[in-house]
Amino acid sequence: MARKPAAMDDAAQRNSPNDDIGEALRLKLYRMQVELREAEQRAFDLFLQNLVKGTSHLSLGQEAIAAGFGVAMKPGDLSFCTYRGHAHTLARGVPVEKVLGELMQRDNGLMRGKGGSMHLTSVEHGVMGSYAIIGAHLPIACGAAWRAQYKGDKDVSVCFFGDGTTNIGAFHEALNFAVVWKLPVVFVCENNLYMEYTPIGDVTAVEHPAADRASAYGLPRIVIDGNDADEVYRAAMKAFEIARAGNGPSLIECMTYRHSGHSRADPAKYRPEGELEKWKERDPIKIYRERLKQFGVGDDVIEKINAEVMQVVNDATEACKAAPMPSLDILTTDVYADGGWAWRN
């Protein structure tokens, strides 16, 4: 059978719904979502074994947001995370061992076991900290973006935050500042419907706490399906294009849902009966697995990715279990700006 002319092939490819992402990127998005899920689930399992001390905030069910932005970001772009930042840290390329090691307070951890769950930072990977104070990182992300603008750099700062942050003054101050100065910053609201234990809708005057307030700052209203990694990736790429061109910030509200409570101590009994089960029908990994099949990716390829990710998580777990606790000689280092504490005395 004669081959179709190249022009026809090109036209068909341009009209394909797959041409803006492609199989290679889709496999990367799927792999990342699976890695985020398995790493977070392992963190929970290790907590039950008393190997992770204290509390932590998991993002099980929200993986598509971290994966979509993580794949879209370029080296040099900066991430600013909340205390629910494990997934965003991993999505920038930080090894699973480094994150699990930090949660387990081991010397092989990202911060040598001194920071714990809520302070993951890796400047090398563009992860500029996880912030436990609600809204604190939004003005800081503006500062980083202002630096890029001033120096003529092309990196973009991406600031992730929860729906509850939209009722904090720093949210409004940062948005106003970013728009006035046309800063290369992207604000990403992960709306999982609950602030901590309180439904965001019970205490907010608008339905969409981020997007419905965007017009007050001259920004377009953007609400996307935060459980669809393709949709997240497309929104991220568009926002990055705007920022790198010098046309200012974007505010994106991603609708999603956390499968677990606010933290390890929260059984989430405040949720209506059946709500979790309904959202699990739109599990981002389930959605993406089916999409891969729709585009002709075989079960063997998908299962191979699953197995490879599980091996990475298993190897990381064993490495962390075998790693020593941090030595006492680093107890007073990295405490103040000069790396020590002596100048304070």
Description:
With 345 residues, this protein is an alpha/beta fold. It has a single domain (24-322), classed as Thiamin diphosphate (ThDP)-binding fold, Pyr/PP domains (Rossmann fold, 3-Layer(aba) Sandwich), CATH 3.40.50. Helix content is 42%, strand content 9%. The chain contains eleven helices and six strands. A six-stranded parallel beta sheet has the order 2-1-3-4-6-5, sandwiched between helices. Strand 3, helix 7 (169-180) and strand 4 (185-191) form a beta-alpha-beta unit. Helix 2 (22-48) packs across helix 3 and helix 5 packs across helix 11. It is globular and about 55 Å long. The model is unreliable at 1-17 (pLDDT under 50).
List keywords for this structure.
alpha/beta, 345 residues, 9% strand, Rossmann fold, 6-stranded parallel β-sheet, single chain
Concise structural overview:
It is built from 11 helices and 6 strands.
Which superfamily, in CATH terms, is the homologous superfamily? Thiamin diphosphate (ThDP)-binding fold, Pyr/PP domains
By DSSP (H or I, 4+ residues per run), the number of helices equals 11
Please state the second-level CATH architecture: 3-Layer(aba) Sandwich
Average pLDDT across residues?
92
Question: Compute the gyration radius: what is it?
Answer: 21 Å
> How does the major sheet shape up?
6 strands, parallel
What CATH calls the topology is: Rossmann fold
Shape: globular
Strand numbers in spatial order across the main sheet = 2-1-3-4-6-5
Order of helices and strands: HHHEHHEHEHEEHEHHH
Give the fraction of residues assigned to helices.
40-55%
User: Which CATH C-level class is it?
Assistant: Alpha Beta
Low-pLDDT segments, ≥5 res? 1-17
Number of β-strand runs? 6
Share in β-strands = 5-15%
Distance from N terminus to C terminus (CA atoms, Å) equals 84 Å
How many domains, in number, for the residues? 1
The structure class reads alpha/beta
